[in-house]
Amino acid sequence: MKIVNPAKAGSLESNDIFIMVFPNEKGIEIELESIVIKQFGKKIRKVIEDTLKELEVENVKVIAKDRGALDYTIKARVETAIRRAM
Amino acid sequence: MKLRRTMLFMPGNNPGMIQNAPILGADSIILDLEDAVSLDEKDAARLLVKNALETLDFTGCEVVVRINSIKSDFGYDDLNVIARVKPDAILVPKATEEDIEEIDEILSTIEREEKFKLGSIKLIPLVETALGLENIRETILASKRNIAVLLGAEDLTADMGIKRTREGNEIFYARSKVASVCRAFKIDAIDTPFADVNDIEGLIEDTKRAKAIGMTGKAAINPRQIDYIHDVFSPTMEEIMYAKRVLHAKEEALREGKGVFSLDGKMVDAPVIQRAENIIMKAKLAGIIRE
Asked: Which residues bind Mg(2+) (chain B) (predicted)?
């Protein structure tokens, strides 16, 4: 799946995550900001990577601002942003 | 038999509310993709609810998803995405006989593709127009998946050009019709939500009025409303004790070979026994009694 436009999904409310995606020729880049980055940073990054993999997206820059989202929310917001960017 | 005393509406695009939904105590929760979601967030809510159904544990709580009208730009996608993660039921807004027939067919196709048991995803038509109310019998008969009807009084009164009041006299006919037809087809009749979440007294009175007419449950729009609605729809201790005495007297009469018997000087016949059995079953389902 190739993305052609910048797009965003989610919100900055608690339990949510705000995702922005941009086309990126350098492959996958993830910039993460989270209120729980010390405890869950690696985990959140992995959920984002796995979702991109599942959607077969290879060239994308993701900026994620997390407000304590659970995995199901992270996955849903990444997928929404990617579909909006196509 | 499943208790549906409360069906709590939850906005489908709010992760915090969705993940708390199973612990709020409602018999059913309705994850809403329709009115609670703005037009530019329909895609996001659909995927959020889909992922929630795949991931979260809703044990003990019936999960219903209100899709957008099948005639709108979103309804088909809602159904196609949500049915594949197997909610207990789909709530169909402004349901008509044709809508229910079409949705039934789409669900059958999805169930076959996903290898779900045929007919396992149920339907709840939402009656919220004058035409919907008058055609309720046909709408119920349009699918065997129908397990309840939910009355939406705000849209109904808007459609009829009449004012919605705290007392609710304007929806007496609608409630009576929904309750009567639902009873005829042995499905649940769910009353419209009470809109003022701060008016607890009004909520209790409104719920009692609905119950007196024959509604079997009520939609809620705030978790604070759940306990009050449950109190009205659950059997009281007095009712349970009387029901137990009726059933005990019935057993004794059977042992003595009596067909008809009396309790406290009143004749007990089949409808009284039936009511007593229903009360005991409801009390067990509500966790009020164990044995």
From this structure: 128, 155
